């Protein structure tokens, strides 16, 4: 009787309370019965990747399509099942379980942890959203009237909600679960699955007065910027310096890569413009410019992470005992390298605004690289204004920039002349003994810095050309690089 009733009335749930299932047990052998020989163990059949015993938290499914942009990334389609081997900041390193097997990095905001719900690969099923989010999604420009989705019910555990866009509003319908596990939207119409229910109401949409035309298009999250990294990947070590922009620290990236980390001071910086400036920095690549590695711009403080130049800035290095022993050819080499880097910025129509020996970095092999290009424009007006007590670097700044805030590539050329003076005085500051106000007054009267003792006459002639009153009369960086390169080669040949 029990098997017959169970089979015919399977939708009733109380049979197990009436007839307990009896597990089959083999009676133990009686006294003196021979012990049966052990059966040979068959090897277990190989398991598919999906049946591997992995922690549930490590199983994911793709919420959106993602196309790999780099070799180490993994392209996935919405609904793909993934096994996360490890999490790496904003990514998971995963093996794809559905489709062609492959591994790679997938942005973590493109996936969700898999649950026992088997419908997550259906384009109309959204397991991660609530009623308000469903409305916002269906009313977005990507979706037209007739777009629909099914989501778990918020108010009734185990039930579902059907949300449908009807012109400028969204209608929600409760999908309830019957005692036997069937589903229904209207009393008397039972369906074995959500698929069957949708198939019926697509054909008989007038029963709910809203057609079900196409599954809701998911809102794709913003693509991750490959430059953007979490702060947790960087460990700060020794403080290297501090300036108008913030502090500079020596650090390690992911425990192994030496880097320099500039921590931006939000109190002095136009933070609203910083992201735009960082985008510009990413496009500037030249061997004479400091190399950008990464940024941490979400929240504060903002990190700008660059390559580490171990000998520090040029002004500090020239003033050190090692710098004081440098020969004239090496000084000319420094000048040439800076002119080359500034020539590239000139081609890109980028104005530095704060060119000085302190913003040129020196590597172990005595290579020089220009740093902090473009950041000066982000300083707040009250910091970078003559009216606030000349807090701008007046002694490096062209008169038209200091007096009238006219910054151009030609004002950078003036600053380069001051940098040449720093190089050939081994790090000595310009206009020593003068205040900023006195410096501007003397320059307006025609005063120019004298020729340093170690400076060739030809180089001093270039300095004076950089300090012409009229910006149009000053040379270009391309010409300065050519002239200094010629001097360097001639001096090198004369010493052979």
TrEMBL record:
GO MF term list: ATP binding; non-membrane spanning protein tyrosine kinase activity
The lineage's top-level taxon is Eukaryota
Keyword Transferase present in the record's keywords: the answer is: yes
Q: Which GO terms describe its cellular component?
A: cytoplasm
User: What InterPro entries does this protein map onto?
Assistant: Kinase-like_dom_sf, Non-receptor_tyrosine_kinases, Prot_kinase_dom, Protein_kinase_ATP_BS, Ser-Thr/Tyr_kinase_cat_dom, SH2, SH2_dom_sf, SH3-like_dom_sf
Boundaries of each SH2 domain copy?
A: 124-216
User: Where is the segment annotated Disordered?
Assistant: 25-52
Main site of residence? cytoplasm
Subcellular compartments: Cytoplasm
Q: Which Gene3D superfamilies match?
A: Phosphorylase Kinase, domain 1 (3.30.200.20), SH2 domain (3.30.505.10), SH3 Domains (2.30.30.40), Transferase(Phosphotransferase) domain 1 (1.10.510.10)
Q: Which SMART domains match?
A: SH2, SH3, TyrKc
Q: Give the matching Pfam families.
A: PK_Tyr_Ser-Thr, SH2, SH3_9
Q: Where is the SH3 domain?
A: 55-116
Keywords linked to the UniProt accession: ATP-binding, Cytoplasm, Kinase, Nucleotide-binding, Phosphoprotein, SH2 domain, SH3 domain, Transferase, Tyrosine-protein kinase
Q: Which SUPFAM superfamilies match?
A: Protein kinase-like (PK-like), SH2 domain, SH3-domain
Reactions listed under catalytic activity: L-tyrosyl-[protein] + ATP = O-phospho-L-tyrosyl-[protein] + ADP + H(+)
Q: Provide the E.C. number(s) assigned to this enzyme.
A: 2.7.10.2
Give the matching PROSITE patterns. Answer: PROTEIN_KINASE_ATP, PROTEIN_KINASE_DOM, PROTEIN_KINASE_TYR, SH2, SH3
Q: What class of enzyme is it?
A: transferase
Q: Does the keyword Protein biosynthesis apply?
A: no
Family label: Belongs to the protein kinase superfamily. Tyr protein kinase family.
- Subunit-level organization: Interacts (via the SH2 and SH3 domains) with DOK1. Interacts with KHDRBS1/SAM68 and VIM.
User: Any idea what job this protein has?
Assistant: Non-receptor tyrosine-protein kinase which phosphorylates DOK1 on tyrosine residues. Also phosphorylates KHDRBS1/SAM68 and VIM on tyrosine residues. Phosphorylation of KHDRBS1 is EGF-dependent. Phosphorylates OTUB1, promoting deubiquitination of RPTOR.
- Its protein name is Tyrosine-protein kinase
Write the gene name.
SRMS
């Amino acid at each position: 009787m029990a098997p017959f009733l169970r089979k015919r009335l399977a939708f009733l749930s109380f049979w197990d309370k009436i007839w307990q299932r009896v597990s089959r047990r083999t009676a133990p052998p009686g006294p003196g019965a021979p012990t049966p020989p052990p059966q040979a163990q068959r090897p277990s059949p190989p398991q598919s990747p999906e049946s591997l015993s992995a922690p549930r938290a490590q199983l994911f499914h793709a919420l959106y399509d993602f196309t790999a942009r780099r070799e180490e990334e993994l392209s996935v389609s919405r609904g793909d099942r993934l096994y996360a081997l490890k999490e790496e900041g904003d990514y998971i390193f995963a093996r794809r379980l559905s489709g062609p097997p492959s591994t790679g990095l997938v942005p973590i905001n493109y996936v969700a942890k898999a649950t026992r719900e088997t419908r997550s690969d259906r384009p109309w099923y959204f397991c991660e959203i609530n009623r308000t989010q469903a409305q916002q999604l269906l009313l977005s420009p990507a979706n037209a009237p007739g777009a629909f989705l099914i989501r778990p019910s918020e108010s009734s555990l185990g039930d579902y909600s059907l949300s449908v866009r009807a012109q400028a509003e969204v209608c929600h319908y409760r999908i309830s679960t019957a005692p036997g596990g069937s589903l229904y939207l209207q009393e008397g119409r039972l369906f074995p699955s959500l698929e069957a229910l949708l198939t019926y109401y697509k054909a008989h949409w007038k029963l709910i007065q809203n057609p079900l035309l196409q599954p809701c298009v998911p809102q794709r999250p913003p693509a991750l910027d490959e430059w953007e990294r979490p702060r947790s990947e960087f460990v700060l070590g020794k403080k290297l310096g501090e300036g108008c922009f913030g502090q500079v620290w020596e650090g390690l990236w992911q425990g192994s890569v030496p880097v320099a980390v500039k921590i931006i001071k939000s109190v002095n910086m136009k933070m609203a413009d910083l992201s735009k400036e960082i985008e510009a920095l990413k496009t500037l690549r030249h061997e004479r410019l400091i190399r950008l590695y990464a940024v941490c711009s979400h929240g504060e403080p903002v990190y700008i992470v660059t390559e580490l130049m171990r000998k520090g800035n040029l002004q500090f290095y020239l003033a050190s005992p090692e710098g004081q022993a440098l020969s004239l050819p090496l000084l000319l080499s420094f000048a040439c390298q800076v002119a080359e880097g500034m020539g590239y910025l000139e081609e890109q129509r980028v104005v530095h605004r704060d060119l000085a020996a302190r913003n040129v970095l020196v590597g172990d092999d005595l290579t020089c690289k220009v740093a902090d290009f473009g950041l000066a424009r982000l300083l707040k007006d009250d910091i970078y204004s003559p009216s606030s007590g000349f807090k701008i670097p007046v002694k490096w700044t062209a008169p038209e920039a200091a007096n009238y805030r006219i910054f151009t590539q030609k004002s950078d050329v003036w600053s380069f002349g001051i940098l040449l003076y720093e190089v050939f005085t081994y790090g000595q500051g310009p206009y020593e003994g003068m205040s900023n106000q006195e410096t501007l007054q003397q320059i307006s009267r025609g005063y120019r810095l004298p020729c340093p003792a170690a400076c060739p006459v030809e180089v001093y002639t270039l300095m004076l050309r950089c300090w012409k009153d009229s910006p149009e009369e000053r040379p270009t960086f391309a010409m300065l690089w050519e002239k200094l390169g010629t001097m360097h080669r001639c001096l090198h040949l004369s010493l052979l």
